[in-house]
Amino acid sequence: MKAPLSWVLDHVDVPDGTTTEEITDRLTLTGLKLEAIESPGREITGPLVIGRVLTKEPEPQKNGKTINWCTVDVGDANGTGEPQGIVCGAHNFEPGDLVVTVLPGGVLPGGFEIGARKTYGHLSAGMICSARELGLGDDHDGIIVLPADAGEPGQDVRRVLGLDEETIELEVNPDRAYALSIRGIAREVLVSVDGATGFRDPAVRDTPAANDEGHPVDVEDAEGCPVFVARTVTGFDPTAPTPDFMVRRITAAGMRPISLAVDVTNYVMLETGRPIHGYDADKVQGALVVRRAREGETLTTLDGTKRVLNPADLVVTDDSGIIGLGGVMGGETTEISDTTTTVLVEAAHWDAVSMFRTGRRHKITSEAGKRNERGVDPTICEAAADRVVELLVEHGGGRAHPGVTVVGSPPAVPAVQVPGGLAARVSGMPISEERSVECLRAVGCEVSGSGTLLVTPPPWRPDLTDAQDFSEEVVRLVGYDKVPSILPTPPSGRGLTRPQQLRRRIGRTLAGEGYVEVVSFPFVGTADLDALGLPDDDPRRDLLRLTNPLNTEAGFMTTTLLPGVLRAAGKNVGHGTTDVAIFETGTVTLPRHAGPAAILPVDRRPTEEEFAALDAALPAQPLHLAVVATGDAVSGGWWGEARPVSWADAVEAVRSVAAALGLEVTASAAEVAPWHPGRCAEISVDGEVVGHAGEVHPTVCAAFGLPKRSVAAEVDLDVLIAKAVHLRTAPTFSSFPVAKEDVALVVDASVPAADVEAALREGAGELLESIRLFDVYTGDQVGEGKKSLAYALRFRAPDRTLKEGEAAAARDAAVALAAERTGAVQRA
Amino acid sequence: MSGPNTDYDPVEVTPLKADQVDAMREAALAAIAAAPDLEALKQVRLDHAGDRSPIALANREIGALPPQARKEAGQRVGQARGAINQALTTRQAVLETEHEERMLAEETVDVTLPTTRRRRGGRHPLTMQSELIADLFVAMGYEVAEGPVVEAEWLNFDALNLGPDHPARTMQDTFWTEPAEDHVVLRTQTSPVQARTMLTRTPPIYVVCPGRVFRTDEYDATHSPMFHQVEGLVVDEGITMAHLKGTLDHFASQLFGDGITTRFRPSYFPFTEPSAEVDVKCFVCRGVGSDSCRTCRGEGWIEWGGCGVVNPRVLVACGVDPEVYSGFAFGMGIDRSFMFRHDLEDLRPLFEGDVRFSSAFGTEI
Q: Which of A129, A279, A374, B86 could form an S-S bond across to A177 if both were Cys, CB 3.0 to 4.6 Å?
């Protein structure tokens, strides 16, 4: 809310010498946070004075323009008392007029410095100003001519122009709609600023009694519209201008001046907080009726939009049909125009929830709607309407029609029981019951009783409904800055859970392996999945759709982290970082299509079943890990050649993570997008598939701006973490000598090395300590379609030195089983 | 063997003459001293101490001497051999040392050569910031609570006293999911974790919940549709705003430095009453608010988050008896805290995945 300070101070007095900052500091501390202090004259420095034009000599120029060489009386403001010679390009003034003169040394908005300078053959010492040059609007048709009684030449002109008017912009929380008005802010000044007195409520005025002569109104839905006041002004002059003070204040408050009739309703809304609607009474046919809309009804609102109404919308109708969306926006047919001479003024109180819903439904945000949906004082409809009538009569030459229509009455506000010690108990401050009562009365509550207080909130505070709400009012007036600082003593905690610790360990492990963590948005589009090459029936295409994505091309929650990491890697490559290894951990969203997550009651705890059903209705959201690497794994240098990343790096990244969790994973060949069909490993632990790793399909690489042979992996960390080994058993070592045996086996190229190794292990028996594949050879020496696998085997017994030939016998058994299982032939 | 024959005519055995033995010894010692390297010394050893060396041959002759001469000759030869062996050992050690020194000198490398062959990894600064914050609270005895990011509308709003027509729902521009009747949202705050915590634990509750949240904010230098919050919740007997203030003051001093405290301003959140905005004293100008301070823009305070006393309505919806227990809750942006703690003006690098950004923070902050 932007509030011109002079307007606020029309309604409350602060001690002399109180600065704007002192006022706003206090308002900030009691809950209306200062956003900005604006002043139209802030950027203007130096002498800006009233000048009286003494002479004006038009001088045609060669360029076709005519300039005026003027002498201007600026009193003593120029230090000499002599007239000031000024060249002026405007013509809308005559000798004798009072004008706004900036003298040399002055600075206008935009840092425009004024000096004495030679121009058009004269020494022009200063400038006669237009409104635009002073930052007072767009008017540049001519210079400002001041009223004859504006003041004496030489006098500072800032006050006359309102340039010294300060506007304070305050942040108003949605529970405190009353502060969306001068009335509310003045009241806050009263209770917040030391020594403030003399609150003059703009909504308290003598209003004429209701009678039967006003415009007929029939409210069919009293719940939706508890109060409806109608007044009429006749003989209104539609050409009457809005007075300057009103234009300035409305503009400063952030609204656009339109016409006197509209400006007056806005002015009164800003002043009292009560939105007002004005109709062109000559266009209204018959009685106004307030009711809910009917299915299929439409209305063209005054923003020109034709709207299909909902049966829950409150509407105002006349004999012609619907003429307004009550409390939200008027209709086109009865809109006030530049020919309106009879104004029908509506000040009605509307149900806030209905306003909120209608506003959302029709996507209308307006100053009126903002107030109506947050809750307006229902008791001030008559006063607000009367104030509108007064201003229309005063400035528009109209006459107040004697008719006063008042339908309904403000709903009663129930009193609330508030324990007298609640504020103390909530705040931890020694606030006495007397102090609480004092504060509550200060904000407008009626308080009776003791021990348990009976508190009736003021009608402008619909937010005060619970005992705890009142405690906040007390505490904020006592001062949040006085709340003591006491550290509570929690019971002994259990520290991080095991999964929490392991997640950290996974990140550190990958960072240690040279991977850099990234964070991506989890939004994805079908085009991203196409880019991954996912087949139509891939389960990762079952996506949770967002109703209102920021970007329609990423309108779903992702089921895989790969698009994010691939894109990030591609971007790095694009930025010239060619060797990239990144990882990301994050949840993915896997829909379960398990039906609605119920909206449960809030006046009790949900049952265990209800709570469980709520969780079951949500998508599964497992934590995934994705890694991508491209470029060189080891860079080249004086030590030797670079080693580019390969599919094996992706598998190794997963193995490292698994090892950090005390797990061993198994890799087996798989064909899964987005990987290279011949270079994709399915990774499993204890027979359960946890993800895939390998070289990324060249087409996918291209789609994400990555070079061929980039590699990636994605695994489900929740599964890995669940399987993580918690307590590891201490190992025992044999101190007897080791016996080493090497074997080279030739197998078909299609036989997985893992199968050969498994057979060797099993065949070698218990004496086998370790096995390591140290060479893979393909070529002429082993023949077409074959490969040679060379293994180093180490044998050792736990309790003795192996006898001569024992290791060799175990090796032979290992080879024999490998031959049986995989067709392996030992190389000579 | 017969006994010594003292009557036996002594035989003159030339090699055992004193001057001869001395000459052998001197020759050997000279050769040892002259051996330039281990290889040469090896030959010297053979020549002067080996089986066929003069002194070894002389030694064999001792037996041929008459008994009375044997002792003297034996002593003489023995001393000579001892001296030669001693000299060999000494020379061997000297030459070995020399050899090693020469080898080490020859193996000298340029230690200024680059050594980095593998990329350095790094963790995301927001991950580390979250952990740092969690650790501060774990140290106080709190536990870390978690919940899903795709969340039930009821837990994100209704249970937190944000009914369907609550104006505050528009404060948090929510991502909704389809079908609408499923009532599932992307959580707009970490507060549903509060509700989950109260629904699954019994007081006393002291938890902190860092996590990702979503709002429909267009992505720019200061807004992101996804960001990170940390929320704290305490439910215990006799909890007041003073405990909230004490906790946040402690948190602020741990995160931003000794003497950095907080300031409360009245605010509004449906799930707390009273509610407050919490500002943290600028840790750069230390609250002075000098115009040149970029961190607080001359205000002396930085907006940090929101907090308050848990609204009894929330306690009721989550099964906690407000007659027995009271609580406080607070929440702040991790990204925002990171930004002003590390002087980052534009948040976008946090989510762009440029390795140059994360790498700069290493593995711990």
A: A374
Cα separation, A451 vs A56, whole angstroms = 79
CATH of B125-359, one of 3.40.50.2300, 1.10.357.10, 3.30.930.10, 3.30.1490.270: 3.30.930.10
- Percent of chain A predicted with pLDDT > 90: 82
Q: Which CATH number fits domain A48-161: 2.40.30.10, 3.40.50.300, 1.10.3210.10, 2.40.50.140?
A: 2.40.50.140
Q: Establish how many alpha carbons lie within 13 A of residue A135's alpha carbon, considering only the half-sphere containing its beta carbon.
A: 19
CATH topology of domain A739-826: Alpha-Beta Plaits (3.30.70)
Alpha carbons B275 and A476: distance in angstroms, whole number:
10
Residue numbers of A between 513 and 552 with CB closer than 8 Å to B: 513-523, 544-550
pLDDT value of position A139: 65
Report the candidate in B230, B314, B46, B5 with the shortest Cα–Cα distance to residue A603.
B314
* Average of per-residue pLDDT across A469-478: 95
pLDDT digits (tens, 9 = 90+) for B92-114: 999 999 999 999 999 999 999 98
Which CATH architecture is the domain A498-723 placed in? 2-Layer Sandwich (3.30)
Chain B positions touching A602 (Cβ under 8 A) are: 158-159, 161, 163, 313, 316-317
pLDDT in tens, A257-286: 999 999 999 999 999 999 999 999 999 999
Q: Which of left, alpha, beta for A191 (phi over 0: left; psi -120 to 50: alpha)?
A: alpha
| CATH number for region A2-39+166-192 | 3.30.56.10
Decide if A153 contacts A51 (C-beta within 8 A).
yes
pLDDT of residue B68 exceeding 90, the answer is no
Distance CA A114, CA A111 (A): 9
From chain A residues 24-83, the ones with a CB under 8 A of any chain B CB are: 28-31, 33
**Residues A146-157, mean pLDDT to the nearest whole number:** 88
ipTM value, please give it.
0.86
Please check whether the two domains, A217-408 and A427-482, share a CATH topology.
no
- Distance from the Cα of B324 to chain A's closest Cα (Å) equals 12
pLDDT of residue A342: 96
Given an 8 Å threshold on Cβ–Cβ distance, is B268 in contact with A173? yes
Using left for φ > 0, alpha for ψ between -120 and 50, and beta otherwise, residue B124 falls in beta
- Give the model confidence (pLDDT) of A699-751 as tens digits: 999 999 999 999 999 999 999 999 998 888 898 899 999 999 999 999 999 99
Q: Which CATH class is domain A217-408?
A: alpha beta
